[in-house]
Design a protein that fits this description.
Elements lengths: L18 E4 L2 E2 L2 E2 L1 H17 L3 E7 L3 H10 L4 E6 L8 H15 L3 E5 L2 H14 L3 E5 L1 E5 L4 E8 L4 E5 L7 E5 L16 E6 L27 E5 L8 H12 L2 E4 L1 H5 L20 E5 L5 H4 L7 E6 L12 E4 L2 H21 L9
Parallel strand pairs: 1-4, 1-6, 4-5, 5-12, 6-11, 7-11, 13-14, 13-15, 15-16, 16-17
Antiparallel strand pairs: 2-3, 8-9, 9-10
The structure holds flavin-adenine dinucleotide.
Length: 356
């Protein structure tokens, strides 16, 4: 009889404890997503009473990151030091984390769903014989059953699926970057540190980092004002017009997915389910219909202005103000009005003070 190893559940789920997060680092600095994982981990730890443990793989630069992690809410850091961990590489990271998990038995393990996090999470899940819910947008714990409730959009965003891993351990989830918030830093916060070494040697690692070429990536997730364009613009050049409006407003240009797929704008600017989630004070949607997958990435904006020629476009429902008409007529007028208003404000004489 063929025994299916994948179907073998954990024999002792009661012995698995703690919430682990991966402290992703780049160039000796904790990445933003590591702080986000510390934020959601802190919440889950406070709710469940399970300890929040951050796993850091780094070279000697790790000491300062240990302190950062604790000040951002982690109770304990396991710092595995080795020069091979300077840059992320699949095999040394997956082997080390997989071994640690099998030895220490965390009940939950959460990673940021970055490029590296996605690569690492699936490798670890296979090594430790568990499942993973990828790219979650909500994470909770059912404390009575000690079960992770990992939620993510499914069926093209039509439903939000709540996925449980009842029998295998650890319960793993990767979390979409930009959704979970770090806690405010608490300077001087104290925590436990366990320092480990690893015996992996550089010559045993088959992948080599020859050169790091930094990519100029635009971060739309922290912008206060986002001017997003969709297929309604009809051509790449339409984004130049949005750039002018964004410049006047001090904002940033973003897009729905089809203009990204068409190569009109880079993928780091995509808003939505398979793009980034933004929370600006002002979101201007130009020629965007408001498909559910797009709205998933902008619905928490404080104030939304839609510019669309179709008064029945779904985006109108999510808007505070809708300007109905052709984007190529409205946007230049909008930009000009802002420019004029700014000039008037600049030239306005200071208010006279009158005294009785
Ligand atoms: C699994 C999955 C994941 C997805 N992820 C994402 C995602 O992350 N982000 C995302 O955006 N989409 C995503 N999509 C695609 C999504 O379903 C929609 O197809 C997409 O959002 C539509 O983009 P759009 O609104 O720019 O284009 P359209 O739906 O083509 O809408 C164009 C709009 O522009 C208006 N318009 C046309 N001409 C003008 C004009 N001259 N002036 C003013 N208005 C005009 C039209 O009335 C219309 O409302 C995903 C789809 C799937 C299946």
């Amino acid at each position: 009889m063929i025994k299916n190893k994948c179907a073998t559940p954990a024999k002792d789920p009661e012995n698995y404890k703690d919430i682990w997060i991966w402290l992703e680092q780049n160039d000796g600095q904790l990445s933003r997503v590591a702080l986000e994982m510390a934020g959601i981990g802190r919440k889950l730890s406070d709710k469940s009473g399970e300890r929040l443990v951050g796993i850091l793989l780094a070279d000697e630069s790790g000491e300062s990151m240990v302190k950062d992690a604790i000040e951002y809410g982690v109770d304990k850091v396991i710092y595995v030091k080795n020069p091979v961990f300077k840059h992320y590489r699949t095999f040394p990271y997956a082997d080390t984390l997989g071994s640690l998990i099998m030895e220490r038995k965390p009940n939950y393990f959460i990673l940021g769903a970055t490029h590296n996090g996605r690569d690492l999470a699936s490798r670890i899940a296979v090594r430790v014989n568990t499942g993973i819910t990828a790219d979650c947008t909500e994470i909770d714990i059912d404390t009575s059953k000690r079960l992770l409730e990992a939620r993510r959009p499914a069926f093209g965003g039509a439903i939000l699926a709540n996925i449980l891993c009842r029998n295998h351990r650890p319960q793993m989830a990767s979390a979409r970057p930009g959704i979970f918030k770090p806690i405010d830093r608490i300077p001087g916060r104290q925590g436990e540190v366990e320092r480990l070494t690893s015996n992996i040697k550089e010559e045993d690692v088959i992948t080599k980092v020859l050169k790091i070429i930094p990519r100029e990536e635009i971060d739309i997730t922290t912008a206060d004002i986002v001017v997003a364009g969709g297929m309604g613009l009809g051509k790449k050049e339409g984004f130049k017009m949005l750039e002018e409006l964004a410049n006047e407003l001090g904002g940033i240009v973003a897009a729905s997915r089809p203009p990204v797929d068409a190569g009109w704008i880079t993928r780091d600017r995509q808003v939505g389910q398979t793009g980034k989630t933004v929370h600006p004070k002002l979101f201007i949607a130009v020629g965007i219909s408001g498909a559910i997958q797009h709205v998933a990435g902008m619905k928490t904006s404080d104030y939304v202005i839609a510019i669309n020629k179709d008064p029945s476009a779904p985006i109108i429902k999510y808007s505070d103000v809708a300007l109905i008409g052709d984007a190529y007529e409205i946007v230049p007028k909008f930009t000009e009005a802002i420019r004029k208003a700014k000039l008037e404000l600049k030239n306005k004489p200071p208010q006279q003070q009158t005294s009785k």
